[in-house]
Task: inverse folding
């Protein structure tokens, strides 16, 4: 059943062949293990990055504390007749619980309503910091507060809303509604619905929305 090898030279050749096969198997296993380790490391890094981005997209939101509008006389309908309307929005914002630092100059605002759709990034002229560090417009703490002002009737402004032509003021009439959505740099969104009272009197200069 077993063949006896009597020639010593032949016995050595069999041992070398086995050794070569063994070394080849070790090399193949080492290369495969290296590929698997590299792939696992890449997948781990990608998973961590994806997890961080997903967390930021959910948590790095701004929270709307209050919202109001400035009341003035505007000719929104283009009939040369001024009516009491909203020409400016003021929204006080803060960090949502668990959010990281939020640079307000990287926040995009979208206005959607019956008067159309407007989307633009905030500028420093739109932001007034109530708390925080110096001149920075960054929310770094839950106690930080900032007021975002959106001028709706500026002819050259990015937030001109509900203006039919160059001779028509932009703004909100009594009874109008407007959806405002804030999107941070990480992609987290916050939306609020603004509703103008059905009656705006001459005595009113500001109104809660």
Result:
């Amino acid at each position: 059943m077993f063949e006896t090898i009597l020639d010593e030279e032949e016995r050595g050749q069999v041992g070398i062949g086995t050794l070569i096969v063994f070394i080849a198997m070790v090399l193949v296993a080492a290369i495969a293990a290296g590929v698997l380790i590299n792939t696992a490391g890449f997948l781990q890094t990608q998973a961590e990055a994806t997890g961080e981005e997903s967390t930021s997209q959910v948590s790095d939101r701004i929270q709307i504390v209050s919202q109001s509008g400035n009341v003035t006389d505007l000719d929104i309908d283009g009939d040369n007749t001024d009516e009491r309307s909203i020409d400016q929005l003021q929204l006080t914002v803060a960090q949502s619980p668990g959010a990281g630092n939020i640079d307000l100059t990287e926040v995009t605002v979208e206005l959607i309503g019956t008067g159309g759709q407007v989307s633009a990034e905030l500028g420093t002229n739109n932001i007034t910091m109530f708390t925080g560090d110096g001149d920075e417009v960054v929310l770094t703490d839950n106690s930080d507060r900032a007021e975002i002002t959106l001028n709706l009737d500026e002819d050259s402004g990015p937030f001109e809303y509900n203006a039919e032509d160059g001779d028509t003021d932009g703004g909100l009439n009594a009874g109008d509604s407007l959806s405002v959505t804030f999107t941070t740099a990480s992609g987290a969104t916050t939306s609020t619905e603004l509703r103008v009272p059905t009656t705006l009197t001459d005595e009113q200069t500001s109104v809660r929305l």
Notes: The longest strand covers residues 62-74.
